[in-house]
Each structure stands twice: as C-alpha cells, then as structure tokens.
DNA sequence: GATGAATGAGCGTTCATTCAT
DNA sequence: TATGAATGAACGCTCATTCAT
C-alpha cells in the first residue's frame, strides 16, 4: 500500500499509482452521488471503474480511507476555488456576496463532488459511533466567515448581530441552495445566489440611526 | 401486514397492535438517532425494544414501511405543534418569527425524532435509487411559507424578493440551527431562534423609499 | 442468538436449538479433524452439516465461540470419563496407571474429538495474538496429577522427584501416544498405554535403600 | 524459482541470492513464532523483512517451499548440534542423558526456530489435506534413539521394554519440556532436562534380579 | 534481481426477509 | 399475536500468486 507510511526519501507515488487513486476516487464520487451512501459498496465502485474490487483495497487502506480522501480532496478543491474570489473583495458586503456567488459557480460544475461530500459528511461515523465529520468540521469555514462579519461590524458597515449565528445561517443557506438545485436542476443557480447575496446584505447592513432609535 | 389495506368494516387496529407499533417506532427513532442510518438494522431496533426482530416484520411490511411511518408520524407531530402557533399571528413578520421560534421550541424536546427524521430523509431511497424524500417533499412547507411572504409583499410589509428562495433559505436556516445545536448542545437555541427571526426580519422588510432610490 | 445473555427465567434452549448446536459442533469437530485448523472455514463446516453457513452465525456468536464450545465440551467429556476411573484407585501407582489407561481407552473412541481439540488448542489465538489455550490451560490437569505424585512421595511409594516435571512429562507422553496412534492407526494403543504405565512406574517408584546409598 | 533444478554447470546461487533467502527465512521464522501459523502471511513476513512481498515469490516457489526450507534448515541445525554431543557418549544411559541435555541447551538459544518448526509441523498440509510433516517425519529420530535403547538392552544396562514406545515418549517429553518453558520462560530448563534424564534413567535401567522375581 | 500492480477466491459476518409453529 | 429458525445475498477485507517492467 503506497498510500501511507511511505518510507522517507522514497520517490513519491508513481504516476500509475496516482492515476489509479484518482480514477478510483472519481468512480467513488460518482457512485456516492448516484446511489447514496448506503448503496455505495466497494464492489459497486469497482464495477463503475471497470476494475476488480481488490484493486481498491490495494490502493486504499480501506473503505474509510477512500471516503476520507474524497472529503479531503473535494474540500481542498472548493477552498482553492472560493477563497481567492472572496479575498480579493475589499468591503465585507462584497466579500460575502463574492463568497456566495463563487460557491454557486463551483456547484454548477461539481454537482457530483458536492453530493458525494454530503453523503459522506452526513453518514460516515467512527467505529465508536460518533460522526466522523459533522458541523464541528465546518469550524474553519465558520471562523473565516465570522471574520468578515466582525470586520464589517467594526467598520460600521454591518449592524450588530451574532456573527456565529449569521455564519452558520449563511452556510445553511448555501447548502440549501445546493439541495434545491439538485432536486430542480432547471432552477437558476446564479439568480438564487444573487437573491441570497441580497438577502444577507439586507440582513447584515447597518441600520439607519432613526431606525435603531425606533426599535 | 395489518398496517395497510385493512379490509373495510374490520375493526381498527387493536389496542395491543397500536401499542406495539408505537413501541417499535420509538425504538427505531432512538436507534436512528443514536447510531445513524447506516448502522440501524432491524436487529438493533428489536434489541432496543426488547423484542424479537421478527415482531417488527409482523407489524410492518418491511424496513421501508417502518421508516415511512416514522417520517409520517414525526411530520404530523411537528405540524400540529408549529402550525397553530404560526397561524395565530396577524402580521407576516410576526408569523415568520412565530414560525421560527416554535420550530426551535419543538426541537428542544424532540431531538431524537428530528435526528431520526433527518437520517431517513437524507438516506432512504426507492428501489430504483432515487431519494424517497428530498427537497421536493418540503414543497408543502415551502408553499406555506411562501404564502406568508406573498402576503407581506402585498401589504407592503416586505420588500420585493423571490418568495421561493426566501422560503428555502428559512428552512435551511432552521435546519442549520438544529444541526448546530445537536453538535453543541449547550448552544442557546432560543437565542439562536431570535437571532434568526431578526435576521429574516431585516432580510424581508420593506426598504424606505430613499434607500431604494439610492441603489 | 440463544447462546448468550439468555434472559433470566427464560426457558432453557429449545430442543431444536440444542440439536442444531450439537450438529454444528459435531460437523466442526470432523472438519477440524480432517482438514486441520487452517483449512477449516465456516463454509466447510456448514457444507458438512448440510446447512447454510449463516445458520452457524445464527447459533454461535462467531467462529471463536464455536471453537470455544468444542474445547469446553470435549474437555468435559474427557474429564467425565477419566476422573472416576482414576479416583477409584487407592495406591498412587494404581491411580497413575488407571489414568494413563483410561485416557488411552477414551482416545480409541474419540479420535476426531481429540484431534479437533488439538487443532484448536495449538492454533486459536486471542485478537492480541496470544494463544487462547496453551500449556497454562493444562494447569488443572497438572495439579491433579501432581497431587497423586505428592501423595505417593509422602507414603514412601515414590522416590524423590520434581512432581511438576513428572506431571508435565506424563501429559506429554499421553499426547505423544495419541499422535503416534493417529499416524499409525494399527498401532496397539492398549499395549502402548501399558508400556507407559510401566515406564512411569519405574520412573517414580521408591529406590531401595542400598540403591540410594550407592548413588 | 532459482532454488531448485539449477542447471548443471551453472554457478551456485550467488551470494546475494543466499543472503536474501536467509533473510527471508529468518523473518519468516520470527513471524511464525510470534503470530502463529494461521496469522503468518507472506505480506507479514515481507513487512518484517522490510521488503516487498513479491521478493519472496521471486526467491521461493511459493509459501509452501518457504515453509519446507524452514523445516529443513532448522532440522539440520538441530541435528548438527545434538548428534555430536550424543554420539561421544559410550554408555547408553550417558547417550540418553546427553541427548536430552543437548536438546535442552539448543532450545535455550533457538526458541523462535523451534516454535516456527512446531507451527509448520503441526499445520502444514498437502493439497490433498494430509499432514505434510507429522509423527512419521520423526522416524529418523525415533530410529536413532531406538538404537541406543537396543544397545543398552543388549549390554544388560537397560531392562526389557518396547524401544519404540520409549523413543516416542522421550521425544514427547522433550517436546513437552519445550512447550512448558515457552509458557513459563522463567522455568529452569536445565533442571528440567536433568529431571528428565533421571526419569528416563529410572525408567530404562535394568531391574535387580530380586526385584524382577517379586513382580 | 526486484517489485509495483493487479486479481480471483475465499474469508467471517451482517442483513432483511420468510415461514412454520 | 408472536417468534425461533433459517437463508441467500451482499458486505469489507485478506490472501497467495502472477506478470510486465
């Protein structure tokens, strides 16, 4: 098994090894996406990849490692897409809007990856029975978005609100947008994202003094 | 087998029959909630109920019917709790706030039920592989909430926005609140619900004329 | 699974349950005896019993429990046969001779049982890798025989020797007799047992005073 | 593959070839000794040797040949150690004592080898299901020891007894000593060997005329 | 000489379901 | 009304071996 404990100083995984792992991961993503977590077996993944199922065992320590690799890979991929687009914005409002829109843009071309991620996210558990991933795994994402909110509150761009609740809500709204689009593929993802951006712009922006006074 | 297509004229399910079904459903809810979808087998449910597992097969046509009964029952229960609290509000804003708060209140005392519902919702598939429930199953809920939004928009209470997106987002925000609270049980659910109500109040309310003009 | 955690007060295992367990154990004994430890799979045992292999899983918690049951059952059976025949002897020499001869007699009619016992004894390991049974499991047998030797030494019937070494050696000699007979089935088991009895009689009996003096 | 049927005139196995085979055999011995027959796979042996598992397949025709090589090598090693020490004795009693003691001495420094030997001895089977080694494989050892006994009986040093039974019993006693020491490593191996020598000296020596008469 | 890659066979186990009682 | 007994299918995984490089 090349995937772990590779001796120090040894050449990195061979080309063929990397290609197989990639191929298997892609087949697994499709399988999770199409059949769902409970119906995804190594046999089905192998079938889709056109290989013997023991090939999977050869390249991955087990089903768990395969799933963890999927999560890791998809997560990195999303971050690489979304972060630059978010960070180049100067205003907090702009950053939030860019964040939502770029995630939506990513979704459009990575439906299967995000579906697979969700299946694993929602279902994979440790041997002890606790969720392997879970809301807690989003902590990093929450904190990143919280930073935007705090910044906006300090600059006076945003009203007073609980940044954590807002952050959790934005994430939920994005997840909900994805789920809705998956169910209704003809749904206009871009328009939905814009609506969400408007929604959170209104939800976060500073209130006019006289408004505040009237509350 | 007795659960469906009961011949016309036959007495309704006996007391003992109903008691057994209830007991099994409750054990199943606990099991789904504790162990997750993939680790919930009829054997485990039976073990928790302290009965033989073929008793389950006797009272339910199969695992699928058991899960469908859970969904139906929990759904009804939520609706019975939430709808009256929502409908007694007169303003759209009030209705939305009451909606969010009452769901949160329900959550607090029905953690296991909602967890089990989520497990089944996210994972149960038809024999053909499509999701048995899914976003589409929420259609009723969406429409109910959309009605509130449209009313608010007609009365001028709300600004112009896409009622469907807003409805999906409210639902997502509520689901996200639940997931967050499940992960962090010490999290203040009531405060979160109030924050959400504020959030959507800001997100929906009509803009002042001069604001609109400035955009 | 009836085999464990039977609720208190519940009727003991049903007749059919006991019959199945017995049948499976017997098939397993034959399989271990014929094919050896490494070639004995639940599939092979089931095949020999003419049942589906999942029946074994139904009646036993696992392969390990099946093997432990074999050991327990065969052990009890031997003890029930040998102990009475040994204990009715009055002299230590007589007890030793009766012990050896009765074991040999038992062997003759329980070849497969003892072979299976040996396979499991020599190979079964705990999940941590240590032998499940081993020499230490013979402790009881050793102690029983040591008691005979000590008694003989106190009465002056036996010479001075290390009772533990003698006990271990008697057991080894019996095991060796069995192994030899298994390999050469025409070998005269009874004569071998008598030779062993003579051997240990000479090896244990008290030396005459002048012999001792001359050493 | 190189190990057998090397074409005539070809140089003997290269140094590196021999070194690899030796390394693999040693790792295999450790693995059999530590993990037991059933848990010893080529993968585990390779892991311990720090080599790829197909290296084993390259140097040995298969797992079976590897095991046979272990048996052959350990057997030769024991014989080289024990035989000279036994043969230099002039009396039959002395030879027996030397035999037992030298085996015990060998054990002390070759625990793993003897354990591995035992694992293979007890478990390796032909494709037809018969034991590959077994009591019959000891024939040579038995005959060697029988020669000692017959000699002693001819010189009048030993009493009348069945030399084959005595030979089998001596071997069993030695095996038993090893097994006991493996379980209780603090057990005094040398003292045990001396006790055994005494035991068999008493068991074999000629009886005094009056003793015989009294029986 | 050496090995990474692949494979089919078989393993023990869990599963939802059926059926006779 | 209840359940013990049974089962075939499928599961994730390990195995010794083969083969191209």
From TrEMBL, chains A, B, C, D:
It comes from the Bacteria. Pfam families: TetR_N. Signal peptide: none annotated. The keyword Transcription regulation applies. Gene3D superfamilies: Homeodomain-like, Tetracycline Repressor, domain 2. Residues 18-78 form the HTH tetR-type domain. Keywords: DNA-binding, Transcription, Transcription regulation. One of its GO terms (molecular function) is DNA-binding transcription factor activity. Residues 41-60 bind DNA. This is TetR family transcriptional regulator. It comes from Nocardiopsis sinuspersici.
């Amino acid at each position: 098994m090349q995937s772990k404990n590779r001796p120090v100083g040894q050449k990195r995984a061979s080309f063929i090894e990397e290609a197989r792992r990639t191929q298997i991961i892609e087949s697994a993503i499709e399988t999770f996406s199409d059949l769902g977590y409970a119906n995804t077996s190594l046999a089905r993944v192998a079938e889709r990849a056109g290989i013997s199922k023991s090939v999977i065992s050869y390249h991955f320590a087990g089903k768990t490692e395969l799933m963890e690799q999927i999560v890791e890979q998809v997560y990195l991929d999303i971050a690489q897409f979304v972060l630059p687009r978010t960070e180049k914005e100067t205003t907090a409002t702009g950053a939030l809007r860019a964040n939502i829109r770029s995630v939506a843009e990513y979704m459009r071309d990575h439906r299967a990856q995000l579906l697979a991620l969700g299946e694993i996210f929602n279902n994979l558990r440790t041997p002890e029975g606790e969720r392997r991933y879970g809301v807690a795994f989003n902590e990093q994402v929450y904190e990143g978005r919280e930073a935007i909110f705090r910044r906006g509150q300090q600059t006076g761009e945003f009203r007073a609100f609980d940044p954590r609740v807002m952050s959790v809500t934005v994430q939920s709204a994005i997840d909900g947008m994805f789920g809705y689009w998956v169910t209704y593929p003809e749904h206009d993802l871009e328009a939905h994202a814009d609506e969400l951006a408007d929604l959170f712009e209104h939800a976060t922006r500073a209130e006019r003094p006289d408004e505040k006074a009237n509350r």
